[in-house]
Amino acid sequence: MRNTEPHDRPIKSWRLILPLTLLLLASLACGGFQVRVTPTVTPPSTETPEAQPTSTVEVPTATATSQPAETVTSTVEVAPTAPPVVGLAAGGTAKISAGGGLNVRAQAAKNAKQVGKLNSGAAVTLTGGPTEADGFTWWEVDNGSGVKGWVAAGPANDPWLKPDAPPPPSSGEGSSGGKLVNRPIVVGDRVRVTTQGNQVLTVRDEAGTGGAPKARVVKETEFMVRGGPVRENEMLWWQLEGEKVNGWAAEGQGEDRWLTPVE
Fold it and tell me: pTM for the complete prediction?
């Protein structure tokens, strides 16, 4: 009997290995051993994300505001009005002192209609005023013969209208009724204007004829002496204080005495 055992073992081994090999090949062909990644589906988050800060630029809103229109005021420099002649007053009388006469106008203005003309020396009644216009002091006058209107009193250094009579006495300025005394003036005296005729005395802002005229005062006006004397232009000057006028005036010249003490 033939011994076949050694030969049978390899055949049996192949019989076992062959089916396994075929199964492996079939599996590989079908992808049986492929690693598959199963995607994991994450459900949407229901959490509300925090609101991120937003940089906001505040833009101011232009509000239309009605602004009042700027008013530009044109200022016209007017020459200082001539100081009035002391003694002129509504209801009183005056004389025209302008050498060439004085125009009478319908209104207190240099461009107003001319309604007449008064000759130098003419007497008038002051029916109105004073009114300041165009750098002059104006008075309403009536000559009693049909000429009525406004006239300018003129500049300080050359008045065109002067009082025709001394003004009535008033407190501190005017005749006090005291007696004139012939002696030198001293500070503290009451003095009276003692010019001749219708002459007026000029009161200035400082001693001397170079001082600016402040007023022209008529005879009988009284003042208190507050300072002086100061010698200027060969005259003695005194500082005077009155009810309406303060300034410097000369005592006199030569034999003419314009200021005299009163007791």
Answer: 0.39
How far is residue 80's CA from residue 78's CA, in Å, rounded to a whole number?
A: 6
Is pLDDT of 234 > 80? Answer: yes
Residue for token pair 């009183």: 92
- Of the candidates 165, 191, 176, 193, the one whose C-alpha atom is nearest the C-alpha of residue 88 is 165
CATH, range 190-262? 2.30.30.40
Residues 60-78 have a mean pLDDT of: 38
Pairing of β 259-262 and β 190-193:
antiparallel
pLDDT for the residue numbered 16: 65
Tell me, what's the pLDDT at 170? 39
Angle at 149 between CA 134 and CA 121, to 5 degrees: 95
Domain parsing of the chain, residue ranges: 93-163, 190-262
Q: What's the CATH fold of domain 93-163?
A: SH3 type barrels. (2.30.30)
105 touches 113 (CB < 8 A):
yes
